[in-house]
Amino acid sequence: MTLVLTVVLVALIFEYINGFHDTANSIATVVSTKVLTPRLAIILAAVTNLAGAFLGTAVAKTISSGLVDAAFVTTETIICALLGGIIWNLITWWFGLPSSSSHALVGGLTGATLATASGNWSVLIWSKAPEAGKAWYEGGGLLYKVVLPMITSPLAGLLLGFLVMSFLYLLISTLNHVFGILKPHMVSWLFGKLQILSAGFMGVSHGSNDAQKTMGIIALALLAATKSGDLSQIPDWLGFLRIESLGAKSDQIPMWIKIACALTMAAGTAAGGWRIIKTLGHKLVKLQPVHGFAAETTAATVIFTAGHFGMPVSTTHAITTSIMGVGTAKRFNAIKWGVVQRILWAWVLTIPVTALLGYFLFKLFGTPVA
User: Fold this and answer.
1) For labelling, which of 63, 71, 221, 229 has a CA lying 20 to 30 Å from the CA of 124?
2) Contact in structure between 260 and 241 (CB atoms under 8 Å)
């Protein structure tokens, strides 16, 4: 019982850190363009993250049942997976690198599960056929839900960011030259107002994807504890902790888990993540309100689409590459490629490092499943 409650606590700590680690994803651009003060931007992000956390549970379902064999997931597995993700998130936050909390969690989970199964690689679900009538890309497993989105979402952010910004440049230029409207000061004023909406959209999409990952991990832990009998002796008033099955539908994540994760992420978001905000909002490229609007709209669209298909994509990857795409449309050398190189290294290392952390933490403290 104590171990199960520890899992829930560590999961919520991860969610809190995820909130302040990924705050920059929602508000870096709106702060750097000076459309909102940091305090107002954080309030906006906290409220929209909270709202987004209640929009569906497809991503939670993927985390809880679509990546690893639940038969080899114990409460110790979950704790080690979360600790691996927490350690990596704190390291990258300290150095101001916008790495992926999503991939940190996935890496920690796969590594810890592999250790639980004593190195049996078959416990990792690499691919799972889609349900009848579904398209191939709606299949499950690490391939469809993690690896392919890890490649396609940054590329989509980069390409769409470039296209959206190019379209806006053309539109503004046409309206200015043909009709004599939308002078530079009007452009800044108009997109300053629109950027509040795009920042809100970004916050909602972030909450709809990221909060669900911890919902999934808590549900997975309680399901494992229920099946192992660890919760058989708990008093009736704690009966809500038992999860007999997550069922075939993604909407069977208990409501109390949704509420706890949503509120914890909102609290973490309110704490802010100034080191990463500085990297994304100031070091990567100089942004004006029109650039911030384009980047946020692009990234939010990519994340929201991925969440619809249950793909736990990286909010960090989407917004960073969207900013890069917008900056490239401005001019190629507007991007500070040295900063990009540091960010890319953090991306490449996230899953391997957290998988190793999860694996070795379990080897040190866990008991393998025979």
Assistant:
1) 229
2) no
